[in-house]
Amino acid sequence: MAAGQVTFAGSGPGDAELLTLKALRALQAADVILHDRLVSGDILALAGPQAVLEDAGKEGFGAQVSQAEINARLVELARAGKKVLRLKGGDPAIFARLDEELTACEEAGIAYSIIPGITAASAAAAAIGQSLTQRGRNTAVRFLTGHAMSGFADHDWAALARPGEVAAVYMGKKSARFVQGRLIMHGADRATPVTIIENASRPDQRVLQTTLDRLPADLDAAGFGGPALTFLGLAPRQAAAALNDLKTELA
């Protein structure tokens, strides 16, 4: 049987209407879809009738399908002649271990292509009516992960603690106290705005506006159970905050 191919695609932050047309075509053409835990049901429902859905989800410090298993499954399916869609939440090139899966395909001689997606930071910024960059405030924005393979991730805390810095922390709920401690240790203002957006772009989206000083306590009190993006140095615009408050009252 002729070798198949693997398409790596980003499903975006969760709202099916934010899926790219190219990713939609890949969903409808795939024989097998290996999807991450954060891919929404609305998006999986767009798969073609012939597609077999396989959950390849991971959860930070929780249940795992090992990366080695995922790599092997991609190669196995492609060698069986299948059109495989590896569907990841957000953008596949941002904290999604894309390189490891690309290497597995390359070493096995499997053809692949990559379809980018809207990353959570973009959707979260839109949710609070903010721009990730602003003249006179920040000429750069950092995308950080809250944890690495061996535990909480370390970063350039001295740089992040400077006034006006903006950072988007992915997978940062469990590391909130660690991040707070490192930033304060390196001189960050305790009044630095911090915003956490849970389920950005989805109907059950929630926004928590707090400060670096209050971050762990307020996050614990909010009881967020879904995927969340944390902005350091960024607060919701007043109009966006009022809109989110209204949505909460109506829920």
* Superfamily (CATH H level) name of the largest domain: Tetrapyrrole methylase, C-terminal domain
Rg computed from alpha carbons, rounded to a whole number of angstroms: 19 Å
Biggest beta sheet attributes: 5 strands, parallel
Count of all domains: 2
Spatial sequence of strands, sheet with the most strands: 3-2-4-1-5
Instruction: Find the structural class using helix and strand composition.
Output: alpha/beta
Which CATH C-level class of the largest domain is it? Alpha Beta
Q: What low-confidence regions span 5 or more consecutive residues with pLDDT below 50? A: 246-251
If helices are DSSP runs of H or I spanning 4 or more residues, what is the number of helices? 9
Strand content: 15-25%
- Let me know the average pLDDT: 91
- Please give the oligomerization state of what you see: single chain
SSE series: EHEHEHEHEHEEEHEHEEHEH
> What would the CATH topology of the largest domain be?
Methyltransferase, Cobalt-precorrin-4 Transmethylase, Domain 2
